[in-house]
Amino acid sequence: MSPFYFKFQFRNVEYSSGRNKTLLCFRVDTAGGSTEPLKGYMEDEHATAHAEEAFFQQVLPNSSKEYDVTWYVSSSPCAACAVKLANILQQRKKLRLSIFCSRLFEWEEPEIVEGLKALVQAGCKLRMMKPIDFLHVWEIYVEQEGETFTPWEDCQENYEYYVERLTDILK
Ligand SMILES: [Zn+2]
């Protein structure tokens, strides 16, 4: 993705006007680390399903193999996706999923709170992205074109804001 696109979609602002889709960067490690991890990204508009669901349809269709999946997402899952992901994790016991989110999506909605709780209960590691995680995504998934990345001024502050929200949701 381009530097501009990354900075627009991933910026961890509190109110994300104009950012109404999810950009999902993924990394899949197979058990034992015998093969190179699989890396890439996807977004809602390239798929009929939400990016989270599309990942399990396109990148990792049903398999009983052992996988460690890491996602960096611009926004946490919607209520429907959270439930779907929780079900997938309950069915595929050898799959481990860690999700690093830039922003929390509609975190005041009761269905979202229930969905995220169910997801964590199903074994998903749910975290907010720290400034260093944004740098990591920049290094791996962005065509940098010689540009260097400095996290925006309020990156740490926004991260702390969202960590508090997430802690409240999960307690
Ligand atoms: Zn969704």
Automatic annotation (TrEMBL):
Keyword match Metal-binding: yes
Keyword Transit peptide: no
InterPro entries registered for this protein in UniProt: APOBEC_Cyt_Deaminase, CMP_dCMP_dom, Cytidine_deaminase-like
Protein name per the record: C->U-editing enzyme APOB-2
Domain CMP/dCMP-type deaminase: 1-119
CDD domains per UniProt: cytidine_deaminase
PROSITE patterns: CYT_DCMP_DEAMINASES_2
Cofactors required: Zn(2+)
